[in-house]
Amino acid sequence: MSDTSFDLVVIGAGPGGYVAAIRAAQLGLKVACVERENLGGICLNWGCIPTKALLRSAEVFHTMHRAKEFGLSVEKPGFDLDAIVKRSRGVAAQMNGGIKALFKKNKVTSIMGEAKLAGKGKVEVKTGKGTETLTAKNIIVATGARARELPGLEADGDLVWTYRHALMPVRMPKKLLVIGSGAIGIEFASFYNTLGADTTVVEVMDRVLPVEDKDISAFAKKQFEKQGMKILQKAMVKQLDRTLGKGVVAHIEMGGKTEKMEFDTVISAVGIVGNVEGLGLEEAGVKIDRTHVITDEYCRTGVEGLYAIGDIAGAPWLAHKASHEGVMVAELIAGKHPHPIKPNSIAGCTYCHPQVASVGLSEDKAKEAGYEVKVGKFPFIGNGKAVAMGEAEGLVKTVFDAKTGELLGAHMVGAEVTEMIQGYVIARQLETTEEDLMETVFPHPTMSEMMHEAVLAAYGRALHI
Ligand SMILES: Cc1cc2nc3c(=O)[nH]c(=O)nc-3n(C[C@H](O)[C@H](O)[C@H](O)COP(=O)(O)OP(=O)(O)OC[C@H]3O[C@@H](n4cnc5c(N)ncnc54)[C@H](O)[C@@H]3O)c2cc1C
Fold first, then answer.
1. Overall average pLDDT of the 77-95 stretch
2. C-alpha 205 – ligand 1 centre gap (Å)
3. Is this model's pTM higher than 0.85 or not?
4. Does the beta carbon of 142 sit less than 6 angstroms from any atom of ligand 1?
5. The one catalytic residue among 411, 444, 452, 464
6. Which of 49, 178, 231, 443 could be disulfide-bonded to 189 (CB atoms 3.0-4.6 Å)?
């Protein structure tokens, strides 16, 4: 490489790193971004995007089974798993190519290699051609995270899978155990269950999707069970006995007893750990809590000129949080005055069937925080568009501060809610009150009218229930 001196070197080209690099370049900084595997990181290659491609195939397959309801006919619906996976990989590859083009357009120097900190303002990069040292006025560490592996439950790629294996399956599971019912676990459970796998989900907490509002978890659980999934709550997989080529016997502890159950495939989705190793972080003086870098609200590590963003900087582990932090830090470095991120205004979406989306505080969390709350609920069955779409199963729930009318949280389960939640995110960002929301005119017929009704319901004014 001819030029090795930059205003900013970004380590990792996931949605945190590549967005930071582009924004910094737009602001006139000379930027390099180092990536050891795939441009676009986990999100574009092994996370958000390829999973949504798989889930779209499952959704279409599910709808094909319902053809008659819509006055249509389909000869026996079927699927080709290899073709579904090929489509998903194609979508990921297309997105990955897009980042390459964006880097070129914005004049970001893209370096494929493994980077680590090498003293103040220095980054050492190992590429296929050898090792070289970049100098940087500023460095952003955006190295992301990987699947957490619990002792005894480690993935082997054959019988026990992480999300990477589940995205490129070696077979269609017949009897599937999913350990963990967070977003990643439930999305894969939903995908394989829809395609016909006999699916059991084990969750250690007292409900599925445990970070969601209780009403939403309960509603989603009922729907999953209707679709044939078995959900074991307050249950823990203690041991997996593997017999190669045959399957796994899972020892599952529940209510003080241990039961043995057989499966041909296990997906372990028990969380993630940050990629903090081998980067020279501690030597540089960066503080680490378990597997995450400790930062302030501006993603500053406490070491001058060194920032950490995205999954490596802790929860929420979401692509849009990573990207927003990337923009914020790029602007900070360029001398602008960005606002710090408000974690409570970052929506979480799960693309299972039915979809789940939420922002802000759940009813319980709001009460725990000392708020007196007003709660509104509106069922999909009361919405004309939802019924016309054949998607009448769902719920929208709002939580307001009874004293000030602040929208504390919004929670949804049902079709298209991952697209609708942004309406409430904007409301929170603009600090709208219940009155603003009630006076807003929602177009008809749309599913978004339910968002209006759930606000009206909190104040005893719902019209269609
Ligand atoms: C199955 C799955 C589904 C998901 N679905 C969603 C979703 O629907 N919505 C959502 O918001 N989030 C989703 N996520 C989470 C999302 O993918 C992450 O929050 C996001 O990718 C984090 O971005 P990041 O830039 O911090 O890190 P990453 O995307 O992990 O990128 C980090 C990059 O750094 C590179 N790297 C690491 N170490 C080095 C090094 N030393 N040198 C050079 N490069 C290095 C890695 O190769 C990687 O490409 C999903 C995750 C998974 C696993």
1. 98
2. 25
3. yes
4. yes
5. 444
6. 178
For ligand 1, say whether the CB of 14 is within 6 Å of any of its atoms.
yes
What is the dihedral angle through the alpha carbons of 179, 183, 186, 191, rounded to the nearest 10 degrees? -120
pLDDT tens for residues 268-319? 999 999 999 999 999 999 999 999 999 999 999 999 999 999 999 999 999 9
The answer to whether domain 5-146+273-343 and domain 160-270 are alike in fold is yes
Q: Please list the residues that pair with 307 across neighbouring strands.
A: 140, 300
Whether a cis peptide bond, with omega within 30° of 0, leads into 151 is no
- CATH architecture, range 160-270: 3-Layer(bba) Sandwich (3.50)
Ligand 1 midpoint to CA 44 (Å): 8
Name the 3-class secondary structure at 326.
helix
Whether 80 has a pLDDT exceeding 70, the answer reads yes
CA 398 to chain centre: 22
- What is the CATH code for 354-458? 3.30.390.30
Which residue type, as a one-letter code, is found at position 26? Q
How far CA 368 is from CA of 148, 362, 365, 407, in Å, comes to: 29, 10, 5, 16
Taking CA atoms only, the protein residue closest to ligand 1 atom 13 is 48
**Ligand 1 site, residue 310, Cβ cutoff 6 A:** yes
d(CA 38, CA 114): 12
Cβ-contact 250, 237 below 8 angstroms:
yes
Q: Which atom of ligand 1 is nearest to the CA of 38?
A: 49
Reported as a pLDDT band with limits 50, 70 and 90, residue 124 is very high
Write the pLDDT tens digit of every residue in 218-248: 999 999 999 999 999 999 999 999 998 889 9
Q: Where are the domains of the chain?
A: 5-146+273-343, 160-270, 354-458
3-state class of 382 per DSSP? helix
13 CB under 6 A from ligand 1?
yes
Q: How far is the CA of 124 from the centre of ligand 1 (A)?
A: 22
Q: Is 271 annotated among the ligand-binding residues?
A: yes
153 CA → ligand 1 middle, Å: 22
324 has catalytic annotation: no
CATH topology assigned to domain 5-146+273-343: FAD/NAD(P)-binding domain (3.50.50)
Atom 27, ligand 1: residue with shortest CA distance: 144
393 is in an annotated binding site: no
Give the pLDDT confidence of 408-440 residue by residue, as tens digits: 999 999 999 999 999 999 999 999 999 999 999
Rounded to 5°, angle at Cα 155 from 152 and 159 = 100
